[in-house]
Design a protein that fits this description.
By secondary structure, this protein is of the alpha/beta class. It has eleven helices and nine strands. Strands 3-2-1-4-5-6-8 form a seven-stranded parallel sheet, with helices on both faces. Strands 7-9 form a two-stranded parallel ribbon. The model has no long low-confidence stretch (mean pLDDT about 95).
C-alpha cells in the first residue's frame, strides 16, 4: 500500500492519475473528504501523529519551511515499518554552500536519512506552474516583472515530477537514490514570457525588477517573514548569475519519454491566462 500526501496539489493530483493508470494500490492522505479525488482516502494531516499501519511506501510533499511535518511522518513511518519514503526536495540542495532556499529541504533530507528508512529524493527545478504568479501584472498591464535578467533555468512540468514519482513508487531499485529533475529547455524569463505570449496571442512586456525589496513584493505582495525574504533575494541572485541553466536527462531515463516543453504546458493552460 502506498500513501500519498499533497494529493490535491499540482504534483499530487497528477500522481493520483498516474497511479490509477498503473493500477497501483494506494490511498491519499486528506484533511477532509474530497469526493472529486479519484482515490481511496485516509483522513488526517501532517500536523500531528499519523497512523501508517499497513503502508509500505510514502510519497512525502511537505508545505512550508519547517521540520515538524517531516518529523511526524518519519516517526509514524518507523513505527509502522514503512519500507520507502519518496520525498520531493529541491535542486537548491545542490549548492555549495547550500543556499537558504535549499537549507529547509537539506535538513529534511538529513532527517529522513538519519531515520534509517530507505529513501528516494526527487529534486526538481522550478515548476512551469510558477508562471501563474505572473497573472496579476499580466491582467493589470500586460507585463511580467523580471528579477533574474540574463539568468537561465529549465522549469519542469509538475506532471513530469508526478510521472517520475509514480515510477520510483511502483518499481524496485530506486531506494537510496537522488534524482535531479529538470525540463528539457533552459530559458531566460523573457524567453518564457515570449513563449506564453505566442500561446495566448498577446504581446507581453518584460520589466526588470530594480531592487531586492521589489523582488520580494513580487512573490509575496502582503509581505514575507525576514528569513524567507532574505532567502528569496539570495535565490534570485543565484538564478541571475546562472546564465547556462541546469539540465538533466533524469525524466527521460526514468519515464522513458521526453519531458514536456514549456510551450506545451502553455498550450494546455490557455484558459488560465485569458
Amino acid at each position: 500500500m502506498l500513501l500519498i500526501t499533497g494529493a490535491t496539489g499540482h504534483i499530487g493530483r497528477r500522481l493520483v492519475d498516474e497511479l490509477n493508470t498503473r493500477g497501483a494500490d494506494f490511498r491519499a492522505l486528506v484533511r477532509s473528504a474530497r469526493p472529486e479525488l479519484p482515490a481511496e482516502q485516509q483522513l488526517g494531516d501532517l500536523d500531528g501523529p499519523l497512523d501508517l499501519r499497513g503502508v509500505d511506501k510514502v510519497f512525502l510533499l511537505v508545505p512550508g519551511t519547517g521540520l515538524d511535518h517531516t518529523v511526524n511522518v518519519v516517526a509514524a513511518a518507523r513505527e509502522a515499518g514503512v519500507r520507502q519514503l519518496v520525498y520531493v526536495s529541491s535542486y537548491a540542495v545542490l549548492g555549495e554552500p547550500v543556499p537558504a532556499m535549499g537549507r529547509w529541504h537539506h535538513e529534511r533530507e538529513q532527517l529522513i536519512r538519519n531515520s534509517g528508512i530507505p529513501a528516494t529524493f526527487l529534486r526538481p527545478t522550478g515548476f512551469m506552474t510558477n508562471a501563474v504568479d505572473w497573472l496579476p501584472t499580466i491582467r493589470a498591464g500586460g507585463y511580467v516583472l523580471d528579477p533574474i535578467g540574463p539568468g537561465r533555468s529549465a522549469p519542469i512540468d509538475p506532471a513530469d515530477i508526478a510521472a517520475v514519482a509514480a515510477t520510483v513508487l511502483t518499481a524496485d531499485g530506486h531506494e537510496k537514490q537522488e534524482y535531479t529533475l529538470t525540463g528539457p529547455e533552459a530559458f531566460t524569463l523573457a524567453e518564457q514570457v515570449a513563449i506564453l505570449g505566442d500561446a495566448i496571442g498577446r504581446r507581453l512586456d518584460v520589466r526588470p525588477i530594480e531592487t531586492p525589496e521589489e523582488a520580494v513584493r513580487f512573490r509575496y505582495p502582503d509581505g514575507a517573514p525576514p528569513d524567507l525574504a532574505a532567502a528569496i533575494v539570495e535565490g534570485l541572485q543565484l538564478m541571475r548569475a546562472d546564465t547556462v541553466g541546469l539540465r538533466t536527462d533524469a525524466v527521460r531515463r526514468l519515464t522513458r519519454r521526453e519531458p514536456r516543453t514549456f510551450a506545451a504546458w502553455c498550450g494546455d493552460n490557455l484558459q488560465l491566462f485569458k
